[in-house]
Amino acid sequence: MKQVKFLLLLAAAGALLLLFRPEGRGGKASADVTTIEAVDPLKNPGQPVADYLVYRALTTGEARMAVTGSSVTKGSGSSNQSKTWRALTQAHLRTAYPSLNTLGIENHGHSGYTSVRLLEDEVTGPVIAGRPDVLIIETSVINNHNKNVTLEDTYASLEQLHALYSKTLPETRIIFISPNPTTDNKFGPPVNALGLRFTDYVYGTQDFIEENGWPYINIHDEMLALMDQRGVKLTETLKDGIHPNDLGYRIWADVIWPHLSAK
C-alpha cells in the first residue's frame, strides 16, 4: 500500500512539474493558438493575402501560391528567373514572414497565351493539381490586344476562369492583375484590327472585374506611377517594348508587394 501511495504521489508531482514548466507543451500550445487566431480569416475579415498564407502554413503545415498568365508572368525578358516579379515576390514573402520561409510560388505563365487560352486543360490542370492557397491571374490582355480577341470574349474568359477556380479550389484566394505597361513594339500595332488599343483592354477588364467584386490590382497604372516617382522612363524597363527587363520586373514586384502585405 505504501508503495502504491508513493507511486501516486510521484505521478502527481510529475504532472505538476509539467503543468508549471515554463517551456512545457501547455505554454507552447497557448502561444500557437494565439498566433493562429491573429491570422484566422474568420476572425480577421479583410486580412492581407500574406496573413492568409501564414494562417494556411500554421494550420496545414504548408502554404502554397501560384501565378498564371502570359509570358510576362512566365518571366520572359528577365536575365534569370530569380529576377522575375514572381520570384522576387516569393523571396520577399519568405524573408518578411518566418512561417513562409519555404513558400514556393508555382509559375503557370504561358508565352503568347490570351485569356481565352488560359482556360485550356494544359494550363488549368496543373494549377488545380497544385492546390494553391492564393492564385494570381494575370489577365494576358497584351496578347488579347495583339491577337484581336474581342472585349466580349475577353470578359467571358475571365468570368469562366473565376468560376472554374472558385469551384475547384473553394478555399483559394483569387486575385486578378493587369500586365505591365508597354510601348510600340514588333508584336502588334498600337491599334488592332478591332480598333482597340492595349489600354482599352486594361481599363475594360478592370471595370469588368471590379463590377463583379473580384480582387484586382492595376499593375499597369501603378508601375507607371512608381516609374514617374523614381524618375525612370518606361523604355528603360522593357526588353523589347512588351517584356520587362530586370528593372521592370523589380518595379512590378515593388508595386504588388503592398497589396499582398498591407494591413
From TrEMBL:
Keywords: Hydrolase. Residues 69-251 form the SGNH hydrolase-type esterase domain. It holds the Pfam family Lipase_GDSL_2. One of its GO terms (molecular function) is phosphatidylcholine lysophospholipase activity. SUPFAM superfamilies: SGNH hydrolase. The keyword Secreted does not apply. PANTHER family: SGNH HYDROLASE-TYPE ESTERASE DOMAIN-CONTAINING PROTEIN, THIOESTERASE 1/PROTEASE 1/LYSOPHOSPHOLIPASE L1. This is Lysophospholipase L1. It comes from Bhargavaea beijingensis.
